[in-house]
Amino acid sequence: MKKITLFALVLVLAMSFVTAAGTKEQSSDGTVVLSAYMQIDPANDQYAGHNAVMAAFEEKYPNIKLDIEYASGEAFHQKFQSMAASKQIPDVFTCYGGARTAYVTETGLTLDLTPYLDEAFMNQFASATWLPQGSAGALYMIPPSFAVCHSVYVNTALLEKLGLEYPETFEELLAQVPVIREAGYYPVSMGNKDPWVVNSWLLGTFIERFGGREWILRAAKGEASFTEEPFVKALEIIKTMSEKNVFSPGVNQMSNTEADQEFYQQKSVYLIDAAWRTSAMDSQLPAEQREAIEMRVFPALPGEKYHNTSSAVASEGFGIAKAVEKDKAKLDAALTFIKFYAGEEGASIRAQYGEVPSYNLDLDKIELDIMQKKFVEFSAEYPMGYVFDSIMDGEGVTLLNTDLQAMMMGNGEPAKIAAEYESWVAKNDSNRD
Amino acid sequence: MPRLNKRASYLTLLLPAFIIYMAIIIFPILMSFGLSFTEWRRFQMTGFNGLDNYREILSDPVFRRSLWNNTQIMLISVFGQIPLGIVLAYLLHRKWVKGTKFFEFMIFLPITISSVVIALLWNRVFSPVGIDTTFVRMATGNPDYVVKIFENEQFAMIPILGVLLWQHTSLYMVIFLANLQRIPNSVFEAAVIDGAKESTIIFKIVLPALSSVIFTTSVLAISGSLKSFDLVYAMTGGGPVNYTYVMALYLYQHTFTFHNYGKGSAVSIIIVLLSVGLISLVRGIYGKAQKKFE
Fold first, then answer.
1. Continuous segment of H or E residues that includes residue A314
2. Which fold has domain A148-312+382-432?
3. What residues of A are in contact with residue B259 (Cβ under 8 Å)?
4. Which of B129, B151, B152, B255 best tests the A interface by mutation, with the highest count of A CBs <10 A?
5. What ipTM, to 2 d.p.?
6. Range of the domain at B231
7. Fold annotation for A25-145+315-360
8. pTM above 0.95, yes or no
């Protein structure tokens, strides 16, 4: 009798485990549940627009539930890599078009969206939205916006106080350094503690200015070499900036956030940062101070071929797991979500929070905060070039960034760094395969 | 027959523990060992490459710097944290300072705080925009003052070593204090009555009594030093340049950032071998010292 009781108990427990292990993906009322993993920090002001889109989606589509897990930075990638390694990825997730999340896009786990996007839908977006993403030209996500990676923020109140004007050329900027320092301010705040900053915020723009868009792509493929002038000259400009004390002291020990704070506290005249910093400025700075901030691009470099350029890359968007393709209800729900997010409805909401969406919106009709308005004007005014580190392989870029940091600390020569980088790229970079 | 049954019972009872040990410890090490001879490209294993990963790692200046930085951490742990822990424990045990409970609490405090929090606290001290830097700038009238030591290739590890000394000494102090309390007070009293000097008490009574604990803490210090990661990662991320890189960071970068699981596995095997080698060395020294004390 005891044995029968024990057997029954084990059976009940086993049944309960089996039942609990399965997730309820489609309930009897037709609700579809999608598991989602997002590199987003909903508590951060920067993602207020995202939160608003999610709320609007929930209201419009109550029959689609997203079971979301949020993570950010390296923690996001670590977990996502583990998921990819075990081939158990969520239904919907944030991913990049480039190499950063290739562990999930280039391993057959992500759905190619091309067959599911019709021409009428695609025509509503900026053409750059549909540049091929995967190595085989696939589209793994719809970029909801573009990440503008270079902007010079100018404290015009300080500039005026010092009797200066925004420099038109690099030489004029260098000439301002002693004047600004004499007055007790720092010329440029930029935090390069994480050494990718100088690459993302500056180097790409400089290469573009000297060589242009085509040259970067040719160098990536091996049709040009990184030992050539555009790359070496770009490195030389950064070296000169370090030697002439253009940056605040301890630039290589200062985090990006600390550099922002230095500028917010009006200790420096310029801040070099990404253009999306505008949302943080709108939430942290008084209106008077924001009114006095201008967004410009770096002054003209000596011998540059292309002028007044910034750099931008398609921002991360939502991808769908390849496995979802087998379940029509889930596939429809996932496509509905990503189209809502990137399309007109999502774009209109995100634009109100300062994003410049990839969807073609008439932004004049949307009421924007002070810095967000400046961001929109900035995006419209300046031509955008490539973001260098979104093209090249991460390992080589990491080695280059370390060398750049050493150079800024006085331990490296541009020509030697360029030669070492070219040697690494020739041997290892996937662009040269 | 009953003896055979007894043996079978033992083996059966051992089996679950054996399987768990194999699955959690032995299998991953063997797997890592196998992977360390493989080449990876674009998230895929492309084949075996013999000892190439080991050759590349050992000739990489970044790894060699990491190895030297780990050695510095190990030296400060074994010859800094442990002796200091003994001294502090002895001072408190002999009640040579007033308010021993207060000092016990204050010294023990750092080990209760997460390494990431400690890193953030000290980052505020060393930061170019931190309060301390601002204060020095105001006091000296030098607006360019920053803690330059991080930018010095030779000495960049010193602030981290200082923080590690501050953070971990307390753990050893508590271990030694607990073991000192096991020595009966009558032993100290008898030694004093017999006219023993303090140095005699320390070298003839205290250190022999603590020898096994010193061995254990040395093993802890060595293995902990070789896998140092959290504090360094949160404090400097291995930078500036690679000046504060450690082996675990090197392993992490190659495995999780560059997705080179072959190279990452080779680093982990090197760490295991170093750890086993050094712990065996300490064991040998301990054995000899034990014989001498006997």
1. strand A310-314
2. D-Maltodextrin-Binding Protein; domain 2 (3.40.190)
3. 81, 103
4. B129
5. 0.83
6. 48-293
7. D-Maltodextrin-Binding Protein; domain 2 (3.40.190)
8. no
